[in-house]
Amino acid sequence: MKKVSTFAICAFLLAVAGCSEPGRYPVSGEECAPTDPVQDMRASDCLVPAL
User: Fold this and answer.
1) How far apart, in whole angstroms, are the C-alpha atoms of residue 31 and residue 22?
2) pLDDT digits over 1-51, tens only?
3) Organism's domain of life (predicted)?
C-alpha cells in the first residue's frame, strides 16, 4: 500500500508541476520569449562534470 500511495503522490506532483498556460514557464509562470537564454541550450550543457 505504501508503494501505491507514494506513486500516486509523485504522479500528482508531476502533473501539477507540468500545468501551465501555453507560452509560459511552468515553475515561474513567466512568459516565454525568443530572446530567452535557454533557447540556445543543448542537452550536453546539462551534464554534471566528473569529479
Assistant:
1) 9
2) 788 999 998 888 777 766 667 788 777 778 888 888 877 888 887 787 776
3) Bacteria
C-alpha cell at 12: 500528482
Evaluate whether 45 touches 37 at the Cβ level (below 8 Å).
no
Angle at 27 between CA 13 and CA 46, to 5 degrees: 95
> Would you state the cell numbers that stand for residue 29, as one nine-digit string?
509562470
Per the CB < 8 A criterion, the answer to whether 38 and 27 are in contact is no
CB-CB contact of 32 with 24 (8 Å): yes
